[in-house]
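User: quick one - fold this with uridine-5'-diphosphate-xylopyranose bound?
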Amino acid sequence: MQIKNICCIGAGYVGGPTMAVIAYKCPDIQVNVVDLNEDRISRWNDKNLEKLPIFEPGLAEIVSKCRGKNLHFSNEVNQKISNSDMVFISVNTPTKKYGLGAGKASDLKWVEACARQVANNATGYTIVVEKSTLPVRTAEVIKSILEASKKDSKDSSAKTFDVLSNPEFLAEGTAINDLLNPDRVLIGGENSLSIDALSSIYSRWVVKEKILHTNIWSSELAKLTANAFLAQRISSINAIGALCEATGADVREVSRAIGSDSRIGPKFLDSGPGFGGSCFKKDILNLVYLCEYFGLDEVASFWESVVTLNNWHQTRISKLITKKLFGTISSKKIIILGFAFKGNTNDTRESAAIQICRDLINEGAYLFIHDPKVTKDQITKDLEVKPLDQNIEENSFNEKGSWKHITDINESLFDADAIVILTEWEEYKNLDWDLAESRMRKPAWVFDTRSIIDANSIKKYNFQFWRVGDGS
Ligand code: UDX
Ligand code: ADP
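Assistant: Sure. Structure tokens for the protein plus uridine-5'-diphosphate-xylopyranose:
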């Protein structure tokens, strides 16, 4: 079966880049990305590529090559579904805030709504592909909604469906490269016709050996497991980092030593401020919920401890900053460098910066927050505290602590007590330390949670320097 028209529901961090790459590699396929969010779609269509809703290296170039030719963004969800042979579901699946499974299970209301939209609008044979990370057995939910619609329809032969699981493994910040050169593409399903149709899309640029076929439940579970394993490595190294600080060891040296064991490998061993992003925490909690549901309590608590350690680690950092600044940060000026959950993305979901900044504000600090790609509005939403726009040197803060958004780091250095690096943006690697030294209040602290500053070169300056996992 030759796919000619694709519709992707959800123009977010997964749907947008994934469809841009499919369109780029398959000029003969029309790719329609649809979303309910009008603002998001108009930004995807903006002539000014700086305004795309997602910042991702290499994305704008691909969008500019394909948009208007075989890559289209619109709000016409129903119409685009009805014209498609294949529909990808790439909508949000956040952790449930209330009800059964609250705090752990994923909220499937958006996925369910999509399945109903597909059920109502699809025509002929349609392959439905789960792209969003979903709890195991979600395909069953989607299938039953689609099957029910066939029974409802007067002419049941007119609509047929197959459901596939094709989880996304891209990491933000490197999404385009991950999509162009994936370690593997995973396709879970039962029907070889639909599996072959999806495989033939990826096989335009991915070698056959890397396109793995599994049953649908293994595919869904493999995605959760991959993220749980990756997150587990980060909690493990952050736990060891705390021990390094206590014992005089250096976590970078420990990482290098263990990472050169080929059974362990060097990747994902960087101690940082704690993992963030939309997937890790959500997926582990999902796994925990699943284990509890099946009565596997020990397995559930094993995985839950990965998240517990991460939460503890973020709090450990904010407490440590307070302690180093003589046990009080009330009315102290702290420059925060980076708010995104990692470098090269404007995404702040579950960013360690959120918890750390909230803790510091609650302690009474005045934060001057900088991030090259995250907007003031986004930071306001995340912190749930309005920023102060006034000139704080004129005593406009109250003793509760607050924050201000800054775009010029150098202009904000005057009388600052500390600089805290929370995201590994390239531009933070070469700050003007001469200027910082002359403008900051002494003793001035530099806290590097990402290990991006050269520890030897900063020693020349009159700073107190702390970096994660360094007990030397
Ligand atoms: C992750 C998975 O990597 C990806 O395969 C999946 O599809 C989605 O979830 P993402 O969350 O975009 O991707 O980024 P990732 O690079 O995995 O980083 C997640 C978090 O871990 C970030 O906060 C990052 O800073 C942190 N991290 C990563 C570390 O603290 N240390 C490391 O060594 C690696
Ligand atoms: P992800 O990181 O998984 O891509 P995002 O939150 O960035 O998640 O994107 C998901 C997108 O899906 C959002 O832009 C949201 O508006 C869209 N969406 C959710 N439900 C529907 C729906 N039923 N129809 C169309 N778009 C939807």
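One thing worth noting: DSSP finds 16 helices and 14 strands in the chain.
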